[in-house]
C-alpha cells in the first residue's frame, strides 16, 4: 500500500542573532554571507524530495527556526518563489513564519505580507524586561511595543504570540501580567511553553537555574491552570496542551502533525514523516551543504516505525489534544482486544482523580491531566 500524499512542508532556518541560553534546537550564530547558499540548498533538497514522494497541493508551509526573520525580505521572497516552483499551493495554504520582535519593522512586515506569508508567530516570551534579560533575548519591551504597533498598522491580523512560563523567580502575578498584556494586542493565537532545561544548554548546566526551576514546579502548575481557565472563559479554543486559538485560527501545521498526517522537513536538523518512516537531517551546517552538493541526502537517521510505535505515537498525539482519544479508532486500528479490560481500572482511577473525562467513546484529559499527559500516555502505551 502506498503512503498517503503529503501536503505539509517545514523549512528550518537555523540562524539567530544570539543563541538563547535555554535553546536546544539546531541553531547557530547568524552569518548573513551564508544565507543565499543555505536557501539554495534548502530549495535543492525540497525539489529532490518532492520528486521521490507522493504529494498533493501544499496545505501548510511553516518556516521555523532558529530565527527566520534574520533573513531579508528579498531572501524570504526568493525562498517562497522557489518553493512555489517545486510544490503547487492550495488556494488557502497557511504560510507561517516565525519572527523575533527586533526584526519586524514596518517595511519588512509589508514585504512579508505581499510575499504570500499569511501568518506570523512572534517570539515574545515575556513583556517584562527582567525576564527578557534573564532569557538572553535580543529584544526589549520597547521593541515589542513599537513593532506590535507596526504589525497592526501594516494590516497583519493572523499572528501568534509565544509566551514562556515557569521562569526562574517568576510569580503567578507576573505571568498573569504577560498573558493580559499579550491579549491587548489582539493576536489570533497564543502558545505557552514551560521552561525546560536541556542538559547541553547553559541553563541546563547552571546549578542556580536548576534549583530555581525545580523550586518553581508548583507555581508553574498554577500558572498553566490559571491561563487555560482564563483564556477559555474569554472565548479562546484550547486545542492542544500548549496552544490556544480564536475560533478558526488554529495552527494548521500543528494540527496536521498531531492528527498523524505526513510532512516533509527540509534544512538542518529538520524531521520528516511519510506515514511509515521518519527521518531527520544532520545538524551541522557545513555537512548539510556538502552532502547536498555531492548529490547525497544530508540524513542523520532514518527509521521505519513498527505497528507498536505507530500505535503509541497515535496515542500520544491524540491525548495531547483537547478533543482527546477516540477509543473506537484506537481499538479498531491499534489496540489488542484485551486492552480495555487491562486498563479499565486505571482509567476509572484517573477519572476519579480529575485527570480525565470519559465522554461517550472518547478519553479526554482535563486541564490537570494535560499537565501530565506524557506520564499518562506512557502508562497506556502498548
Task: Looking at this protein, list some descriptive labels.
382 residues, 44% helix, three-stranded antiparallel sheet, alpha/beta, 17 strands
β-strand amount: 15-25%
Summarize the amount of helix as a percent range. Answer: 40-55%
Largest sheet at a glance?
9 strands, mixed
Q: Would you identify the regions where 5 or more consecutive residues have pLDDT less than 50?
A: none
Give the CA-based shape.
globular
Distance between the termini: 24 Å
**Topology, number of strands:** 17
Which strand order spans the largest sheet, edge to edge or round the barrel? 9-10-8-7-6-5-4-1-11
Class by alpha and beta content: alpha/beta
Contiguous helical run count: 16
Mean pLDDT across every amino acid position: 92
Radius of gyration: 21 Å
Describe the structure.
Helices cover 44% and strands 23% of the residues. The protein is of the alpha/beta class and 382 residues long. The strands form four sheets. Strands 9-10-8-7-6-5-4-1-11 form a nine-stranded mixed sheet, with helices on both faces. The protein has a three-stranded antiparallel sheet with strand order 12-13-14, with no helix packed on it. A three-stranded antiparallel sheet has the order 15-17-16. A hairpin with a 3-residue loop joins strand 12 (271-273) and strand 13 (277-281). The radius of gyration is 21 Å and the shape is globular.
Amino acid at each position: 500500500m502506498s503512503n498517503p500524499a503529503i501536503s505539509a512542508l517545514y523549512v528550518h532556518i537555523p540562524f539567530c542573532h544570539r543563541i538563547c541560553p535555554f535553546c536546544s534546537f539546531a541553531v547557530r550564530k547568524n552569518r548573513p554571507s551564508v544565507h543565499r547558499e543555505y536557501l539554495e540548498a534548502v530549495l535543492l533538497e525540497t525539489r529532490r524530495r518532492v520528486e521521490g514522494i507522493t504529494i498533493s497541493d501544499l496545505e501548510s508551509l511553516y518556516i521555523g527556526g532558529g530565527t527566520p526573520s534574520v533573513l531579508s525580505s528579498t531572501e524570504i521572497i526568493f525562498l517562497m518563489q522557489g518553493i512555489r516552483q517545486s510544490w503547487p499551493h492550495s488556494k488557502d495554504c497557511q504560510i507561517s513564519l516565525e519572527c523575533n520582535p527586533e526584526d519586524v519593522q514596518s517595511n519588512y512586515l509589508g514585504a512579508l505580507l505581499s510575499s504570500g506569508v499569511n501568518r506570523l508567530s512572534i517570539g515574545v516570551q515575556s513583556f517584562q524586561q527582567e525576564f527578557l534579560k534573564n532569557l538572553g533575548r535580543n529584544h526589549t519591551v520597547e521593541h515589542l511595543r513599537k513593532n506590535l504597533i507596526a504589525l497592526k498598522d501594516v494590516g497583519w491580523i493572523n499572528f501568534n504570540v509565544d509566551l514562556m512560563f515557569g521562569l526562574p523567580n517568576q510569580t503567578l502575578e507576573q505571568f498573569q501580567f504577560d498573558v493580559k498584556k499579550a491579549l491587548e494586542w489582539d493576536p489570533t493565537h497564543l502558545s505557552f511553553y514551560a521552561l525546560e532545561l536541556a542538559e547541553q544548554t547553559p541553563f541546563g548546566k547552571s546549578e542556580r537555574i536548576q534549583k530555581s526551576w525545580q523550586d518553581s514546579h508548583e507555581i508553574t502548575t498554577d500558572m498553566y491552570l490559571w491561563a487555560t481557565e482564563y483564556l477559555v472563559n474569554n472565548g479562546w479554543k484550547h486545542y492542544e496542551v500548549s496552544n490556544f486559538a480564536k475560533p478558526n485560527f488554529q495552527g494548521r501545521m500543528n494540527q496536521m502533525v498531531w492528527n498523524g498526517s505526513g510532512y516533509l522537513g527540509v534544512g538542518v536538523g529538520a524531521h520528516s514523516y511519510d506515514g511509515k518512516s521518519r527521518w531527520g537531517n544532520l545538524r551541522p551546517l557545513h555537512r548539510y551543504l556538502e552532502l547536498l552538493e555531492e548529490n547525497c541526502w544530508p540524513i542523520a537517521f532514518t527509521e521505519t516505525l513498527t505497528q507498536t510505535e505507530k500505535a503509541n505515537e497515535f496515542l500520544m498525539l491524540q491525548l495531547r489534544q483537547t478533543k482527546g482519544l477516540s477509543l473506537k479508532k484506537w481499538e479498531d486500528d491499534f489496540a489488542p482486544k484485551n486492552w480495555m479490560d487491562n486498563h479499565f481500572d486505571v482509567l476509572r482511577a484517573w477519572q476519579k482523580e480529575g485527570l480525565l473525562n470519559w465522554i461517550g467513546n472518547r478519553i479526554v484529559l482535563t486541564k490537570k491531566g494535560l499537565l501530565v499527559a506524557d506520564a499518562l500516555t506512557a502508562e497506556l502505551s502498548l
